[in-house]
């Protein structure tokens, strides 16, 4: 089985773009539209990486991150928060809850792909916010 990514995004156009980008990297891609569906997908088959939006229906991304980090069976799952919430306090909270990286929307698809590739290459990608060149927006 190849590397897998779970895209947790409620905005259909962004989810479609992320599915396409991750598929081009040769990753097995699944999509969850809300926090509960994300946790169910993790229980069924934990992904290697989660691209996690924060503003989700039912359960927000912070809660999903907290739940994943509290489960020892999911300790190896990497999490990149991908969100429009760009305040320093939001970023600090996400990283404190256990996110491996935090990227704000709009984001550069090239930079996102580079960070995902770095995770899979075993290198720690930086977690600085991207100014982004704005090719994906919410």
Brief description of this entry?
The protein is of the alpha/beta class and 138 residues long. Helices cover 39% and strands 17% of the residues.
Provide structural commentary.
This protein has a single domain (4-120), classed as Response regulator (Rossmann fold, 3-Layer(aba) Sandwich). Helix content is 39%, strand content 17%. The chain contains 5 helices and 5 strands. A 5-stranded parallel sheet has the order 2-1-3-4-5, with helices on both faces. The longest helix is centred in the first third of the chain and has 13 residues, at 12-24. The protein is globular. The relative contact order is 0.16.
Cα-atom Rg, whole angstroms? 13 Å
Reading side by side through the largest sheet, how are the strands ordered?
A: 2-1-3-4-5
Amino- and carboxy-terminal Cα gap: 33 Å
Query: How many strand segments?
Result: 5
Fraction in beta strands: 15-25%
> Helix coverage percent of residues?
25-40%
Unreliable segments of 5+ consecutive residues: 123-138
Q: Which H/E pattern describes the elements?
A: EHEHEHEHEH
How would a textbook summarize the main sheet?
Answer: 5 strands, parallel
Class by SSE composition: alpha/beta
> pLDDT average, as an integer?
87
Count of individual helical segments: 5
Per CATH, what is the topology?
Answer: Rossmann fold
Task: Please report the first level of CATH classification, the CATH class.
Answer: Alpha Beta
Characteristics:
single chain; 138 residues; alpha/beta; Rossmann fold; 5-stranded parallel β-sheet; 5 helices; 17% strand; globular
């Amino acid at each position: 089985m190849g590397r897998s990514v779970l895209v947790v995004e409620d905005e259909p156009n962004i989810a479609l773009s992320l599915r396409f980008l991750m598929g081009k990297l040769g990753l097995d891609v699944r999509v969850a539209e809300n926090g509960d569906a994300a946790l169910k997908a993790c229980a069924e088959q934990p992904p290697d990486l989660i691209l996690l939006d924060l503003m989700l229906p039912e359960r927000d991304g912070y809660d999903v991150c907290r739940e994943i980090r509290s489960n020892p069976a999911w300790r190896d799952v990497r999490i990149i928060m991908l969100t429009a919430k760009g305040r320093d306090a939001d970023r600090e909270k996400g990283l404190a809850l256990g996110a491996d990286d935090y990227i704000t929307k709009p984001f550069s698809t090239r930079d996102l792909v580079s960070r995902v590739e770095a995770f899979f290459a075993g290198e720690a990608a930086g977690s600085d916010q991207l100014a982004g060149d704005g090719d994906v927006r919410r």
